[in-house]
Amino acid sequence: MTQVLAARTPQDHQSGRAPRKPRRRGGLVNLLYAPVLLLFAVFTVYPLFRGVGLSFTNWDGYSPDQAFVGMTNYLRLLSDSTFHTVLFNTLIYGVGSTIIQQILGLALAVALDRPSRSRNAARAIIYLPVLVSPVIMGTMYYLLFQYNDGTFNDIMVALGGQRTAWLSNPGVATGIIVAVNSLQFTGISMIIYLAGLQSIPGEYYEASSLDGATGWKQFTNITVPLLQPAFAASIVLNLIGGLKLFDVIKVLTSGGPGYSTNSVSTLISVAYFEDQTAGYASAMGVVLFILIILVSLSVNAALNRNRVEA
């Protein structure tokens, strides 16, 4: 009886009404998730399972006829030297871009974390390429590196040199693609590291200064260990983006010369639209999906393990 009276509000005592029961809104909130879950199922889950199913067929991508061929497409991948080269390129794009973006992003974050009148403008300028479409970014760099009217070649000719076929050399073209992708998305790493730096209490640096620690010792013993969550987020995001690189490659080299600069993503488009082997393209897509999942989970687990040890 005491509990019931205690649960009543003053208004309930005056009116003699029973106390109101709290409304449960969990069901309504869960119902609001339904449109998002429906869109996710239609545009992500269904295409994923549909692609896995098509990887076991000989579908050409256009005809309604398709036959089940079992593991034929996957066995073909094992013996396809072109796919092996492209798979290696994909790892280069993913790992190379990630390394460059971490180095540049962390360096810029440390530099722009210090008080300065122009740091906000500098942050905006560095992050601006992230907002540009990769197609536009690739076109801009194509105008710099193309053979006949490229800016770099025009400068070399003006200085008395000769034109260089930058994008016709597989090694050079691969390096250019890695550099372009890295420079465009360095701003993402910078923002992640800036957030991490601003979450580190200043008392740590003050205490270390009293112990005679220099700037480099503070960086290695305080900043780096406490940035482990930021490292994990930035590396995994950049790695996923690099492994599925498509737009920049298509604009700069179209995968050439030959297939030497293709990634798995661009080779999938070639197999589907040009070779009309949609089943084989689906098998490559499944392999790429598995590769991204395995690499991302492995790297994330390793980084989390180091964070715990730190």
List keywords for this structure.
single chain, 72% helix, globular, mainly alpha, disordered N terminus, 310 residues, 0% strand
Characterization of this structure:
Helix content is 72%, strand content 0%. The protein is built from 16 helices and no strands. It has helices at 2-7, 10-15, 26-32, 34-54, 72-79, 81-112, 119-127, 134-145, 151-158, 170-198, 202-210, 215-226, 228-243, 247-252, 264-274, 278-309. The model is unreliable at 1-7 (pLDDT under 50).
Pattern of helices and strands? HHHHHHHHHHHHHHHH
Structure summary, number of beta strands: 0
- Output mean pLDDT: 89
Distance between the termini: 56 Å
CA-based gyration radius? 27 Å
Low-pLDDT windows of residues = 1-7
What is the share of helical residues?
Answer: over 70%
> Which strand-content bin applies to the residues?
under 5%
Shape: globular
**Number of helical regions:** 16
Let me know the largest β-sheet: none
Briefly note the structural class of the backbone: mainly alpha
Task: Outline the secondary-structure elements.
Blueprint: H1 2-7, H2 10-15, H3 26-32, H4 34-54, H5 72-79, H6 81-112, H7 119-127, H8 134-145, H9 151-158, H10 170-198, H11 202-210, H12 215-226, H13 228-243, H14 247-252, H15 264-274, H16 278-309
